[in-house]
Amino acid sequence: MTDTILGAEDSKIITLARAARARNGTAQGAAVRDETGRTYTATNVDLPSLRLSAIQVAVAMAASSGAVSLEAAALVTDEEEPGDQDMAVVQDLGDAILFLAAPDGALKGRYR
User: Fold this and answer.
1) CA 39 – CA 46 distance, rounded (Å)
2) Cβ atoms within 10 A of the Cβ of 26, count?
3) Most C-beta atoms within 10 A of its C-beta, which of 54, 63, 79, 101?
4) With left for phi above 0 and alpha for psi between -120 and 50, is residue 77 left, alpha or beta?
5) Which residues sit opposite 40 in a β-bridge?
6) How many CA atoms lie within 13 A of 57 on its CB side?
């Protein structure tokens, strides 16, 4: 697999993250895949008393559903790099790769 070619499962989580972002009209969409292959999608939360990135919400959903590790994560955003907090929360559940993608689905980078 090269930097521009993704496997079907990795493409799927980017597609799910894009769909969540578009559906909710938010700045970010995310999807994570756990060790059993289950996927969790989320968007960022921007409330007066609670601000979470889409990755933070997706990882929290996975953890609260019993996931013990992640295989992969995808973040769709206009940002050029994932934030330190996003990388930290993905690493909290193992050594998963984080795919960063543009709103059109173009892969911007892979992070570990």
Assistant:
1) 23
2) 17
3) 54
4) beta
5) 32
6) 19
pTM: 0.93
Spell 59-77 as b/e; 16+ CB within 10 A means b: bebbbeeebeebbbbbbbb
In tens digits, the chain (112 residues) has pLDDT values of: 334 689 999 999 999 999 999 999 999 999 999 999 999 999 999 999 999 999 999 999 999 999 999 999 999 999 999 999 999 999 999 989 999 999 999 999 999 9
Q: What is the pLDDT of residue 4?
A: 61
Torsions phi, psi of 50, nearest 5? -150, 120
Those residues whose C-beta lies under 8 Å from the C-beta of residue 9, and which sit 6 or more positions away, are 33, 37, 71, 72
CB 91 within 8 A of CB 73: no
